[in-house]
Each structure stands twice: as C-alpha cells, then as structure tokens.
Write a structure and sequence with these properties.
Layout: H1 38-41, H2 57-66, H3 69-73, H4 92-110, H5 125-134, H6 143-154, H7 162-173, H8 186-192, H9 216-222, H10 236-239, H11 244-267, H12 273-281, H13 287-301, H14 305-318, E1 320-324, E2 338-342, H15 344-362, H16 365-390, H17 403-411, H18 415-428, H19 431-442
Antiparallel strand pairs: 1-2
Helix pairs in contact: 2-5, 4-5, 4-11, 5-8, 5-11, 6-16, 6-18, 8-9, 8-11, 11-14, 11-15, 12-13, 16-18, 16-19, 17-18
C-alpha cells in the first residue's frame, strides 16, 4: 500500500490471484527464488512452453536478447567514438557487455546482505543481465547525437527517445514476427523502463526522457495495472520510480560510462595531463575531487590508466547496499521493496569523471564536428524518406526502402504511424550503414548496380 512500510523485510512468496506465469516450475534440484513470484514472470501474451524447459523466465529473456539482430547491431554503433575508428575503442555492444558484468557483480555483492537476502531469496543476476544487455538496444546510429537529431525530426510525429525505442524493440519489432517483439516478462519490462512519462505528458520545457504514447499498454502491464499515485507526477518524480533491477542497471551503466569511456578518451589522446590539469584549475574542486584528478594524472603519466580505472569498478560495486522502502507496488513485488543506496563519495567521483569526459572529449571540436556530420546525414535521410513515405505528394514513387517495410507503411493508419516505421528503419541502422545509405542516395560518384549491401 502507498505510504505503508512492510513490517518484515525477510523474503516471502506472494501468490497473485488471477495471474498465469506461463512457466513450469523449475526442477526440484533448482529451488525457486523467493524474491520473485508469478507477478514478476508474467507476460502480456501467453508464451509457448516446451516440454522439459530447463530455463527460468529470465534466462529465456536473456537468451532471446543475445540471439537478436538488434543486439548484434550494437557492435557497429557509436559509444564514444564512431564505430570502426580503431578496433580497441568501445562500441555500444562492448559497453553493454561491460554493464552486464558490473550488474551481475552487484547482484553477487548484495546477496551477501544476509539480513535481507539469502541463497533462496536474492536479486536474480540473469534478470539484471538481461536488463543491462538490452538497455541500449534502442540507440540509433551516431550515439546521443543521433538520438537528439531523431528526437527533433520526430517531434511532430510522437518523438524519438532511446529508452522508448528499446521498449518498442522488445515488445513490437524484435524478430519481426507479427510485430509482437519477444513478449518479455513483466520484471524485464520494468527493469528497462528508466522513464515512465508518456510523450504527451511531458512537463513544459522538458523535451526528452519519455515513452511513446502508444506504449501506454506496456507501461500499464509493467505496473501491474495499478495507477500511479498523485505524488508521482509526470516528469522527474515518475521517471525516478524504478525497480531494484532498473536501479542496479542504472548504476552499472554509470559506472561503465564514468570509468571505461574516460579510459577511451585518455587512450585516444583527448585527455592528457596538460589539459586535465588546465581544466581542473578552472573548476571549483573540493579536496576529494582534486585528489581524484591527481590520481588520474598520475595514472596517465605512468601509463597505468586501464588497470587503475578497472580497479575502481570493484569500488563502485562495493559502494552499493539495499535499503527497504515502500510504495504503491511493494505489496505486489519485492522488486519495489528496496532502493539501491550508493556511497555518496563514489557517486560524486563518477559524476566528476562524466564531467571530465563531457567537457574534454564530447565537447571537443573533433567530436562536435562528427556530431554535426551525423546530424546532417540523419536529417538528409529522414527528409528524403519523409517526402517519399510519410507525407507523399503521390502514393507511389521510387522504392527507397525494403519492400516489406513499404507494405507496412502503406497499411499504416496515419502520418504518425508511417513516420514511426521510417524512424524504426533509420534507428536500426549501424553507423556504417547510415553512411553508406546516405552516399548511395546523395553522392553521385558512389554506388553501382552491384552495390546491394
């Protein structure tokens, strides 16, 4: 109940009436994890159950993500630098794998809190891994620059948001079989839902961090068909409401971003001792922050950046603890009975690292020039496809997209539906495919009749 704290936080199994989890019980040798109930493993549509199924609901979720083309495409999507710049820089794929490893390790660390968890009642590492592996599936080519461009271009048609696109992939477009996605479990859905405000609910002045309006059904299912209480208004209050698995994924993502992306920036030469010290002189750093900058400078001088930053990953994992809480979903699932508390010093250090990366790497002229090029390419691609498919002067014209997509677009009920399908195609592109498609459409000296890939 809202505002009512549970008197006993030891693990228990809550039977939920009227729900069919669609999954057989695990084998006797694998005792059920009492942290979860049929409420958590339920799916919106019935899943086919195979005789002798040996996997849990969350293992099935994970396996479907790993074997999807959406996951494979992350290997050629920008993390910090354009994919293919050098083979040792991180891509969205390697970043997602690192986030998953950190997430699983946090689960192992939290499991040691014996006053709350035990060997038969624990946060499922397979579920957290699934959440981490899928958290960036919806990112378009060219990283956050591409996301900003598509958001601007799609504003008249319902917007574009990376987290909303992840939900769309998981629930509608993955595997392309009847537009039903992978039919994920409720716990996985809730785990990837960093934002719970719909596009048309956005507070004035807030342009991002939302879900698409037509995803309300999935949001309602993830919330167990319970309405948000009045204090969780759209925007930051509602978006801050997260399951424990989502909180773990969020901190694992912050950890990987603040440490590993920083290491890539140093390796690429964007961050060195000279410009880091010059940057620090212009900041109002406290004693701890100055010490952290000195640590980085020393690691750079001694060429020990990767090893020393990697050791900090362990510190970020051990900086977590569970704190009991209560909210409107606590009676339905233990996933909403806890908050993930982060050591303030480690969170402050992560914020400092992200600020260094932002100001010395992402705002460097070199990357800003690439962002400008990415914006131009996506703008041109969207423009020609908009004129041909979204708001066409004529119902037929040159075939610029795959035939199956053209058929779907022709059947869409309105311009918003047509725009969403066009946006799906662009968002799915890898960096390289977006470059190549742009050149094929606009570069007179590129392409031939044998160029089909």
């Amino acid at each position: 109940m809202k505002g009512q704290r549970a008197e006993n936080h030891s693990c228990f199994f809550v039977p939920i009436r009227g729900l069919n989890p669609w999954f057989p019980s695990l084998a006797p040798a694998m005792p059920a994890n009492r942290f979860y109930s049929p409420f958590d493993t339920a799916t919106l549509h019935e899943r086919k159950v195979f005789d002798g199924e040996y996997r849990s609901a969350f293992q099935i979720d994970r396996d479907r993500i790993i074997h999807s083309s959406a996951f494979r495409r992350l290997q050629s999507k920008t993390q910090v630098f354009l994919s293919g710049e050098y083979d040792f820089y991180r891509t969205r794929l390697t970043h997602s794998i690192e986030v998953a490893q950190i997430g699983r390790s946090i689960c192992g660390w939290l499991r040691q809190q014996r006053d709350i968890l035990d060997d038969e009642c624990f946060i499922d590492p397979d579920l957290v891994e699934s959440t981490c592996l899928s958290h960036d599936l919806g990112h378009p080519p060219f990283g956050h620059a591409g996301e900003r461009t598509l958001h601007r271009l799609m504003e008249p048609y319902g917007g574009f948001e990376g987290n909303a696109q992840t939900l769309r992939i998981l629930t509608q477009t993955l595997f392309s079989e009847g537009r039903a996605g992978m039919n994920p479990s409720r716990a996985l859905l809730d785990g990837v839902l960093k934002y719970k405000t719909l596009f048309t609910e956005r507070p004035a002045g807030k342009t991002n961090h939302y879900l698409y309006d037509d995803q309300e059904t999935w949001l309602d299912f993830a919330m167990g068909h319970q309405a948000f209480p009045v204090e969780l208004t759209p925007g930051k209050p509602r978006n801050g409401f997260k399951s424990i698995e989502c909180q773990i994924m969020d901190w694992a993502d912050d950890t990987a971003y603040s440490l590993n992306d920083l290491a890539d920036g140093i390796r690429a030469g964007f961050i060195n001792v000279t410009n880091l010290e010059r940057w620090a002189e212009k900041q109002s750093l406290d004693a701890s922050q100055a010490e952290w900058v000195a640590f980085l400078c020393k690691a750079i001088r001694e060429d020990r950046v990767e090893g020393r930053l990697n050791r900090l990953i362990g510190d970020c994992i051990r900086a977590t603890k569970l704190v009991p809480t209560a909210n409107f979903l606590s009676a339905s699932t233990k996933r909403h009975q806890f908050e993930l508390q982060i050591d303030p010093a480690l969170r402050s250090r992560a914020d400092l690292h992200k600020k260094i990366s932002l100001e010395l790497v992402f705002r460097s002229p070199q990357l800003q020039q690439l962002d400008h090029k990415a914006d131009y390419i996506l703008q041109q691609l969207f423009g020609v496809l908009r004129d041909r498919y979204i708001e066409p002067a004529q119902p037929k014209g040159l075939r610029l997209m795959p035939e199956t997509l053209e058929t779907e677009i022709a059947a869409a009920p309105d311009a918003n539906g047509r725009a969403r399908l066009v946006c799906d195609w662009i968002a799915n592109m890898t960096d390289r495919f977006a470059f190549r498609t742009y050149r094929r459409l606009f570069d007179a000296e590129f392409g031939s009749i044998t160029d089909f890939v």
